[in-house]
C-alpha cells in the first residue's frame, strides 16, 4: 500500500483495493441471467492454477479506494450487488456491506470461504478450493455451493463439501472453462445420476459480456 496510514484504513475495511466495478448480467450459479453490479476486490492467496482473474491476486496492483466512493457508484446501477475477487474476505467487509445495506441494496458474496466471515450478506455463494479449504463456521451460513470441476476427482470433493452445508443450500457443479468441452458430458451424466446437483455454466463468457 502507499503508506502506513492507508494500510491501516485498508485493514479496517474503510478503504479497499478495488480492482474493478461494473454493471452486467450474473453469469453463474443460482442467479444466472439477472442484472447485478459487481465489485471486484483485489487480493487472494488461494492460488488456483486455473483462475481466470489472476491479475486480482496482488492487492498492491489495485488502488486503495474509499468505501464511500464504491457505495455511491454501486447504488446508481442495481438493487443487487455482488462482491467478488480475488478473495473479498481477505479484508474486513463490515463497513462496506453495512454502507450498502443502509442504501437498501441486496448484497451477494462469492467466496472460497478461506478467511473469517465478515460483513452483512443476503446471499452467500461458497466456491471451495482444495488447496485452501473453507473455515468450518461458514458452511452453516451458505446459500449456494458452487464447486468447480476440473477433473473427475473433483466430484468426490464436491460431495465432501455438500455434506457440510445446510439442507437448504443450492448445489451447483461448474466446469472449469478451459476443460469445459471435456468435462460437460461428465457433469451432465453425474447430475442425472445425482439430481440434488444442478449445472452452472459461465454463461457470461458464452454471451461475450463481462
| Overall strand count | 9
Going by helix content, strand content and strand pairing, the class is alpha/beta
Rg computed from alpha carbons, rounded to a whole number of angstroms = 17 Å
How many H/I helical runs? 6
Mean pLDDT: 94
- Architecture, according to CATH? Alpha-Beta Barrel
Shape: globular
Q: What string, H for helix and E for strand, traces the elements in order?
A: HEEEHEHEEEHEHEH
CATH superfamily membership: Aldolase class I
As for the CATH topology, it is: TIM Barrel
Distance between the termini: 27 Å
Major sheet = 9 strands, mixed
Helicity level:
25-40%
The CATH class is identified as Alpha Beta
Unreliable runs, pLDDT <50, ≥5 residues? none
| Strand content range | 15-25%
Widest sheet: strand ordering: 3-1-2-4-5-6-7-8-9
How many domains make up the 3D coordinates? 1
Amino acid at each position: 500500500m502507499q503508506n502506513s496510514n492507508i494500510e491501516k484504513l485498508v485493514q479496517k475495511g474503510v478503504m479497499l483495493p478495488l480492482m474493478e466495478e461494473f454493471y452486467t448480467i450474473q453469469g453463474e450459479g443460482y442467479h444466472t441471467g439477472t442484472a447485478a453490479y459487481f465489485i471486484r476486490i483485489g487480493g487472494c492467496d488461494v492460488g488456483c492454477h486455473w483462475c481466470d482473474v489472476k491479475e486480482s491476486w496482488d492487492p498492491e496492483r489495485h488502488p486503495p479506494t474509499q468505501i464511500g466512493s464504491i457505495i455511491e457508484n454501486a447504488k446508481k446501477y442495481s438493487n443487487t450487488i455482488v462482491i467478488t475477487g480475488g478473495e473479498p474476505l481477505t479484508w474486513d467487509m463490515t463497513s462496506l456491506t453495512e454502507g450498502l445495506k443502509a442504501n437498501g441494496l441486496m448484497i451477494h458474496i462469492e467466496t472460497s470461504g478461506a478467511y473469517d466471515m465478515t460483513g452483512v450478506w443476503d446471499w452467500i455463494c461458497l466456491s471451495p478450493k482444495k488447496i485452501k479449504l473453507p473455515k468450518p463456521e461458514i458452511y452453516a451460513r451458505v446459500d449456494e455451493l458452487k464447486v468447480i470441476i476440473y477433473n473427475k476427482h473433483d466430484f468426490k470433493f464436491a460431495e465432501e463439501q455438500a455434506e457440510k452445508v445446510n439442507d437448504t443450500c443450492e448445489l451447483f457443479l461448474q466446469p472449469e472453462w478451459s476443460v469445459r468441452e471435456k468435462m460437460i458430458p461428465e457433469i451432465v451424466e453425474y447430475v442425472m445420476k445425482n439430481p440434488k446437483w444442478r449445472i452452472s455454466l459461465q454463461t457470461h463468457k458464452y454471451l461475450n459480456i463481462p
